Amino acid sequence: MKSPLRHVTGTAVLLAGLIGSGGGMAVASPAAPQAWAPTQAAAPQAPLPAAIPAPPQATQHPFGPNVYVFDPSMPVARIQATMDSIAAQQVDDEMGTKRYSLLFKPGTYGTPEQPLIVQVGYSTEVAGLGAAPTDVTINGHVDVYNRCLSADNCIALNNFWRSLSNLTINVTGLEGCRSSANFWAASQASPMRRINITGGNLSLMDYCTAGPQYASGGFIADSKTGAVINGSQQQYLVRNSSIGSWSNGVWNQVFSGVNGAPPQSFPNPPYTTLAATPISREKPYLTLDQAGQYNVFLPAVRQDSAGTTWENGPTEGRSIPLADFYVAKPGDSVQAINSQLARGKHLLLTPGVYDVDQSIEVKRAGTVVLGLGMATLTAVNGAVPLTVADVPGVDVAAVTIDAGEMESPALMRVGKARQGAGSGPANSAALSDPVNPTTLHDVFFRIGGPHVGKASVSLEVNSDNVLLDHIWAWRADHGNGVGWTTNTGANGVIVNGNNVTATGLFVEHYQQYNVIWNGEGGKTVFFQNELPYDAPNQAAWQHDGVLGWAGYKVADSVKTHELWGGGSYVYNNVDPSIHATRGFEVPVTPGVRLHSLLTVNLGAGTLDHVVNDTGAPVSTDAVGVPSYVADFG
Fold first, then answer.
1. Sign for the pseudo-dihedral over CA of 176, 103, 378, 383
2. CA-CA distances (angstroms) from residue 295 to 327, 364, 366, 387, 568?
3. Burial, 274: exposed, middle or buried (Cβ in 10 Å; 0-12, 13-18, 19+)?
4. Pairing label, strands 252-256, 271-274
5. Count of helices and strands (H, E) across the chain
6. Are 498 and 559 within 8 A, CB to CB?
7. Which pLDDT score is estimated for 489?
8. 596 Cβ partners below 8 Å, 6+ apart?
9. Is there a cis peptide before residue 106, judged by omega within 30 degrees of 0?
């Protein structure tokens, strides 16, 4: 997701009567749902980079030139100038190679009279360095707006690859419509974590531009907000948070362990609400202590939990001194990185693009791999860029992995494949730990987009007891190196391990099954999928007498599996006559249960059933109108 060619139905966005803080303006609602024709506009070229002013009184730090560390003693105007210059570079640079991490020391930034206004572009991280989100306060905004690809085509569908974490936004400043909320109009791979919103609304839709204002997110975790405006967001997962209210749903809004969440009501409105998250661990984050020392905090695992980790006291977990990390920079060899990992170091990847010609190998239990500023590993010569051994407690966070021109068998492997994995007895208990799972947070995969890429599988999980907390595996539908025989990728995610849990699984456009789940005891809380747009004809996209391939496949041998909140969408724009038989394919057995399922037609092709042979078809007769199955199995 998402090309500007998207064909998405509008919804009656429930904004009427919502009063924005600050500007005191009422936000009007569309009069009625509308169907919108696809637009065909090429994204504009990114502007030439402006010179980025160095932050005043620049603090020495070990993270390289693309990390900016701000101090509350710095003049707001100078911080603002740096923010504006970086945003000017990044706001349209969707497939570029620049990466930035903008970090704030504990303290307060901006005032009501001189608010700090941050616009977050592509490949940019904004984060606080406090122990709690309340340690850093920005009086102002940290916003993502629609991109206007033409005067009447303003959308957030392609607003990917950015993040916001570990700070408080006291919403103030700006004028008119822009003063009515803090805007986070982003789609996939744009997580919001450990955020405290005060003083105004949080809007996940940018309703201040020309239409159609569509958005396709998204992920929020460990955050506290007041009123949240979902608006045009097609789907969203909110996990382990506290919210004041939620405005509306479109197709698939999921709340897991969220205080203040709307009650279960799928499909009308399409809210799927779990009182508690089965297992969770928050993403590790960089902190600066009172002695001026950098550390990485690793939050503890929680079972059957709800609410944030920080509202009622310090987050449980352990702090790891930065001295225990190898701080890598683009250009470092894989041999150097692996040597440091073998010596017992954790790994911190500073912002940039790393060419990886052999696997970065994480072999030690409890190792943390943390990326800053959307750090990106690119496969070279068919390498598997990142592998994790069959050990417990590894945490890989905030890393993007790109396929290269030579096909890789996988882009990331967790655990070594072994005979019978996922279809027989569980792997050895000594190799994993159900109370200390290896965890992936905000790990994103791309096949094509920045350049030609090929990979048979994006993520292969062979270990037991793994937690996947916000994954986006994307075979590109737009950008560079895109085509049915150009950016080839059979499967997005294959799970062979047992007792694997996914909270936020986004997998799109792969050429066969987007997800294959072979392991027992799997759980998925929120799944979003688009089938491939670009199959040239039906003959090229079918198997074993079945038309197309399902987006989510649970192996026939599996006895126990559960999914909450899953959507699969079809848009065969190359050959609109193509059919896919089903969005979800699972064995019919008492232990396999799926809840809150839907399929949607986005303007081309036909999806004949939701799950197996159950559920009405979606076709161009009713574009954007879901076919629902509330429960199956």
1. negative
2. 12, 20, 16, 25, 41
3. buried
4. parallel
5. 2, 47
6. no
7. 98
8. 252, 254, 266, 267, 270, 272, 564, 565, 566, 630, 631
9. no
Q: Which residue shows structure tokens 């992995």?
A: 401
Q: Which pair of structure tokens corresponds to residue 488?
A: 């080839």
Instruction: Point out the least confidently predicted range of 28-42, 56-70, 566-580.
Output: 28-42
Mean pLDDT of 314-341: 98
Active-site positions read 530
Three-state secondary structure string covering 484-548? CCCCCCCEEEEECCCCCEEEEEEEECCCCCCEEECCCCEEEEEEEEECCCCCCCHHHCEECCEEC
Q: What average pLDDT does the chain have?
A: 91
* Euclidean distance between CA atoms 99 and 10, whole angstroms: 33
Q: Bin 352: left if φ > 0, else alpha if -120 < ψ < 50, else beta.
A: left
Write out pLDDT tens, residues 112-163.
999 999 999 999 999 999 999 999 999 999 999 999 999 999 999 999 999 9
Report, as an integer, the average pLDDT of 552-568.
98
Element of type H or E holding 340: helix 334-342
Q: In angstroms, rounded to a whole number, what is the distance separating the alpha carbons of residues 22 and 452?
A: 46
Q: Which residues of 232-266 are buried (b: 16+ CB within 10 A; e: fewer)?
A: bbbbbbbbbbbbeebbbbbbbbbbbbbebbbeeeb
Q: Which two tokens stand for residue 516?
A: 């294959």
- 76: CB partners within 8 A, 6+ apart: 109, 110, 111, 114, 116
Q: Give the residue among 472, 579, 486, 571 at the shortest CA–CA distance from 528.
A: 472
Task: Tell me 225's DSSP state.
Answer: -
Write out the two tokens for 249.
């749903």
Mean predicted confidence (pLDDT) in 100-106? 98
Cβ neighbours around 29 below 10 Å, total: 16
Bridge partners (DSSP) listed for residue 620: none
